[in-house]
Amino acid sequence: MAPVHAQQPADFSVIAYYTGDEKTIDRYDVGKLTHIIFSFGHLKNGRFHIENKRDTATILHLVALKKQHPKLKIMLSLGGWGGCEPCSDAFSTAAGRLGFARSVKAINDYFGTDGIDLDWEYPAIPGHPGHPYKSDDRENFTALVAILRDVLGDANELSFAAGGFQRFLDESIEWSKVMPMVDRVNIMSYDLVHGYSTVTGHHTPIYSVRPDEESTNRAVAYLIGLGIPPQKLVIGAAFYSRVWKNVAPTNSGRYQSGEHTNGYDFKRYESELIPEKGWQYHYDEKAEAPYWYNPAERRYATGDNIRSVTAKTRYALTKKLGGIMFWELTLDKEKEGMVDAITKVLAN
Predict the structure, then answer these.
(1) Are 118 and 161 in contact (CB under 8 A)?
(2) Other C-beta atoms lying within 10 Å of the C-beta of residue 341
C-alpha cells in the first residue's frame, strides 16, 4: 500500500509533537505524519542542548525513520512550557542569538534533522510563573528568527509555536517581519482555558461562543487579517482534557467557577470520561467542542475528541491552512485514535 501521506493534499502538514522515547514511536503509524517535532531541547549556557543519552537515542531513531518514510521531516524543538526560563536573557544580545543559532546548526547537522521549532512561552508577556520577560523580547524574537534563518539557510525548516490567545497575538510577535522568514507558525489553539483559569470553558474550541472568548477561528481570522498567507498557519489540537473540580451544575459546568485539577489523556477517555464513572457527555455545536460534567463529583472536563478533531481538520482544509498539529503523539490511542481521524478527513 502507498504511504498514507502520499494521499494527503501535498501542501497540508500533519505535525506531531513527540515526548516519547526511541521505542514508543514504533507503536504509531508515522506514515500518517508529515512532521515529528522532538520535544524538547533546552538552553544551557546560551546554547541549544540535548539533555541526555535517552534524548540522543530518540532523535537518532526518529531520523532513521526517514529511510522508510522519505517525506517525513524530523524537527527539534526549543523550550516548551517551563522550558525557556533563560530565553529572554539569552536572546537579548546579538552575540547571544548568534551563538544559539550556530549551536542549533551544529546539532541539526550532527543528527541530520530538518530544522527547529521555537517554543518560547512567551516573548514579552507573562508565561510560566517566575520566568523573566520584557517588552524587548518582541523585537529580539524577530532578530533571533532572522539569524537562525541566515545560519541554517533555506534547506532547513524554521517554525515557532504561538499562543492562541489574543494577548500573545497582539504583544509577543512582530508578525509582518517574522512570518516571511519562517515556514509556518504552529498556533496553540488549546489551553485557551488553562491550569491557572478559575472559570471553566472550552480549552480547544474552533469557534467563540461568547464575544470575548478565545478560539481557533479568532486567532486564524486575526492573523489572516494581518495579511499572513493562510498556508503558513497551522492550527493545534489537544490530545488531552483539562478538568476542574467544585464546579456548579449550571450549564452542565460550562463558564462556572472551579478549581483546576488533573485531566485525562485522550487514550484514557474511554476508561475515565464514561457514564459508569458519573460523566455526562455534551457537544457544543457552536464552539465545535466536546465537554463532560460529573454531577455527583461536581467536576467538569474539556478537550478535543474524535468529533472535534475531525471538525478542526475540515476547518483547516476549508480555510486552506497549512495543516494541523497536536500535543502530543503519545497521548493518542495507537489505533482508531485522533491521528486516524485526521487521516480519514484528508483521505476523503
Answers:
(1) yes
(2) 21
Edge-to-edge strand list for the sheet holding 280-284: 259-261, 241-245, 299-303, 289-294, 280-284
Q: pTM score, two decimals?
A: 0.96
d(CA 194, CA 81): 12
158-177 pLDDT, tens digit each? 999 999 999 999 999 999 99
Residue recorded with cell 492550527: 235
CA distance 345 to 8: 9
Report how far apart the first and last C-alpha atoms of the chain are (Å, whole number): 17
Give yes or no for a contact between 316 and 253, defined as CB atoms under 8 angstroms apart: no
pLDDT in tens, 86-141: 999 999 999 999 999 999 999 999 999 999 999 999 999 999 999 999 999 999 99
pLDDT tens, position by position, 198-208: 999 999 999 99
Q: What whole-number distance in Å separates Cα of residue 220 and Cα of residue 175?
A: 13
CA–CA gap between residue 268 and residue 272 (Å, rounded)? 6
